[in-house]
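Bench notes, afternoon.
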Amino acid sequence: MVYMCFYKQKRKNAETNERENAQVKEAKMMTKVQLQEHEMPTAWYNLAADLPHPVPPPLGGDGKPIGPDQLAAVFPMNLIEQEMSSERWIDIPQEVLAILYRWRPSPLHRAYGLEKALKTPARIYYKNEGVSAAGSHKPNTAVPQAYYNKVAGIEKLTTETGAGQWGSALSFACSQFGLGCKIYMVKSSYDHKPYRKHLMQTWGGVCVASPSTQTKAGRDILAAHPDSPGSLGIAISEAVEEAVSDPSGKTKYALGSVLNHVMLHQTIIGLETKKQLAIFGEKKVDQIIACAGGGSNFAGLSFPFLADKMAGADIEIIPVEPTSCPSLTKGKYCYDLGDVAGMTPYLPMYTLGHSFMPHAMHAGGLRYHGMSPLVSQALREGLLNPSSVPQLECFKAAVLFARSEGLVVAPETSHAVAQVIREAEKAREEGKEKVIIFGLSGHGMLDLQGYADYFAGLLQDYEYPEEEVKAAIAALPGFSTIAAIH
């Protein structure tokens, strides 16, 4: 009897091992993992709950911390509550989930083609946010922002946009909730990316080039710099000015990056990725890579993994920015305005100075002078390893990715691809296996002019002069300095 029980248990163990081996073999052969709708996260992760030190509070023009009431002219109170929340998990409303289900969960792909092209032992995965209605990660926060404003009785939203991805996303989201939408688009992108304007118009958005003559902030900039290519800082000034100038109080401002509640909404990306990696059979991640401008795409993928890193996991997390707009790698950590005209509070962030006028490169979504306070705090804590990449290397990487994987990525995403290639080549040289995850923040099908200019040899690299950063920082008020973390 004992022998029979032993035999049955041995056979059962063999069957279990065979089943597990089959699952591992299947995982190794998979090209992508697509979760079911019921597997999508139903709560956002708030990094502020777990950082070793809290993010310093925003300040008013007098250098004193501001409270919820001072933000109420710009944002509805339900979003202000999220902005200031220290809760680790915040539930996603069912009305928001219902719209996100149209493209979420987004797929996680194994980049077999790129691995083969690079002859690397690294296993490379990318989270494809280009499958959304607007073709980028931006609707992940545009939809909840439109929802919370609608619930608060708001009728119209104003915003800025660089490359046009955020303006497109907010136009889409407003159309779903019956809200008006006005977008100030950075002039250099407005001129180079006409189809983004048409996309916004299709969803009911009104798009104007910034700086414009429709606001005092815009007119002042044009008076001083008639040929200004514009910047996100200028466009923010115009959008905020229009929102706060509405006497009815029915117009609010929506921001596509930088602020805490925007970072929060994007964490659905990383939360999904964790589940998908488990299905792929990956038990350890070595590197998380994503492009970073204001920080939302980077935060969305990395923040859930930052929680693991703070708990002891050995993960390198790399935000990648342009050498022409290097807020993390060359900026200073201090209090600075979020816009040019001084319409916003002073935020604690790595910054090039709010007067920074970025080079008119094609990655318009990364042309912002400052970085999210949450991302900035994570860097201060030593949790991030930022990198900057020049424009020509980015387009070269994007072309290789297109020819090996088939997808044409947005110029912003090309920065992440370039860094991935650097890391994969390093793994090949060292003969080390490692798992690299990167964020494909958006497709490049409406950004083909940038590729055309690259192939025509019209693009050039540009490195922002450090002396200009020093001059911009020197102009900040005395209370801008923040004590170092010990």
